[in-house]
Design goal:
It is globular, with a radius of gyration of 16 Å. The chain is 22% helix and 36% strand. With 194 residues, the chain is of the alpha+beta class. The longest helix has 16 residues. Strands 1-5-3-10-7-9-8-6 form an eight-stranded antiparallel barrel. The protein has one domain: Alpha-Beta Plaits.
Length: 194
Amino acid sequence: MHAMQYEISLPADYDMGIIRRRVAERGHLLDRWEGLGLKAYLMRERGVHGSPVSQYAPFYLWNTAEGMNSFLWGGGFQGICDDFGRPSVRGWTGLAYAEGSGSRARTAVRRRRPVPEGARLADVAEGALSEARRLAAREGVVLAAAGVDTGAWESVHFSLWQQEAPEAEGDVFQVLHLSAPERDRLSRRGPRGG
């Protein structure tokens, strides 16, 4: 599994209805994308849930590198580049994924933090798995995932919630659409296969 996200920061007075319409018109295009576990079409508005910025910031969990590469290099991502310029794409190696009991995702929470210098990497991976399972067990959680960027040594915890204002630490986004063609294939194993 591979996690990926890009953020398109928009002016404070940007009409976020444009983003909502874009997702309503185009969101279904990835509903059957091969290799895609899920794409959460996310946005946040300045001043809502404490956000300092307005952004369009989709988050992806890929089952295969081929699916991800097909999206990035084969045309899916080109629409973003054409309309907003080419954003930097962040990537994290997937460490953990867990399903929750929540039904419809309305909100997403993303928490990033540095991996401490000197930390035992096996402990970091096991901690990510434990945190994903802990999050997934909370009421209203649809799913939880974790990954690590080994270039920046940063971990990311991502969760989808059915509540509009979940009690969770991190950046809060509105979920506009969820494409999940291969969600059932996302790895539920931990970093050591357990």
